[in-house]
Amino acid sequence: MFSPLVLLSFWLISLARAQSSPPTNLPPVDPGAFTAEASILINATVEKVWGVLTDFPSYAEWNPFVRSQVVTSEFLVPTSSQEPVEGHRLIIWSQIPPLTPPVNANSFANPLNTRITIENITHVQPDLGRVAWKLFGSPDAILSAERWSAVSAFQDEDGIEWAFYESREVFSGGLAALVGTLQGEGLQQGFDAQAQAMKVRAEGL
Ligand SMILES: *[C@@H]1O[C@H](CO)[C@@H](O)[C@H](O)[C@H]1NC(C)=O
Ligand SMILES: *[C@@H]1O[C@H](CO)[C@@H](O)[C@H](O)[C@H]1NC(C)=O
């Protein structure tokens, strides 16, 4: 048996650990059938990481998961600015599982692992460092998937400033469990690979 003192010190240590991990900047959402998510501390400014996150035309140069992400009007015509705008669409070509990093604009996609989706840009919140897009054209009862991403400032216990990148996609609806079974692991690998590669990209800029 542990003495109360030992238990108290365990509790204090776990409290200290909990406090030194960055608080989330993602909004709370209902849990779905499964979730893919990743987060990482990046040694760069929030502005720089936000720039990497929202510079979709450059994704091919570094992102092993999302190989192309094109902003379009609601009629699927690419916009000239390519900046995320609420209510615009995104056409996304992803690799599930992701390519082996590092990648560049000439890396070959694996056609068997290519997934193309159309999304609606649901939230663009530069002041909060948040952006979200949601699977378009599928009734929520069948398959609903909204991907939130956030970049926030974090100061660790040594006083060092970091950018904290987080991304999370919750899948719900009747088909979500099947998608999770077929692609959940590959999607999770994609989220991890994108977070790692975003760190390399932002720290190298
Ligand atoms: C962060 O990057 C700077 C250079 O930009 C470097 O001097 C510093 O040591 C890095 N900090 C950590 C914790 O890696
Ligand atoms: C797309 O997102 C915008 C912004 O949240 C919303 O107003 C609009 O209704 C959405 N469009 C569709 C078709 O879901």
Description:
By secondary structure, the chain is α+β, with helices and mostly antiparallel strands. 27% of the residues lie in helices and 32% in strands. The protein has a seven-stranded antiparallel beta sheet with strand order 1-7-6-5-4-3-2, with helices on one face. Helix 2 packs across helix 3. The structure holds 2-acetamido-2-deoxy-beta-D-glucopyranose (2 copies). The site of one 2-acetamido-2-deoxy-beta-D-glucopyranose (NAG) has 2 residues, from loops. This is Coenzyme Q-binding protein COQ10 START domain-containing protein. Residues 1-18 form the signal peptide.
Keywords:
START-like_dom_sf, 205 residues, alpha+beta, binds 2-acetamido-2-deoxy-beta-D-glucopyranose, Coenzyme Q-binding protein COQ10 START domain-containing protein, seven-stranded antiparallel beta sheet, signal, Polyketide_cyclase/dehydratase
Give the CA-CA distance, first to last residue.
53 Å
Q: Rounded to an integer, what's the Rg over CA atoms?
A: 19 Å
Ligand list: 2-acetamido-2-deoxy-beta-D-glucopyranose
Percent of residues in beta strands?
25-35%
pLDDT under 50 segments (min length 5)? Answer: none
Helix share bin: 25-40%
User: What summary fits the major beta sheet?
Assistant: 7 strands, antiparallel
Write down how many β-strands occur, each being a DSSP E stretch of 2 or more residues. Answer: 7
The 3D shape can be described as: globular
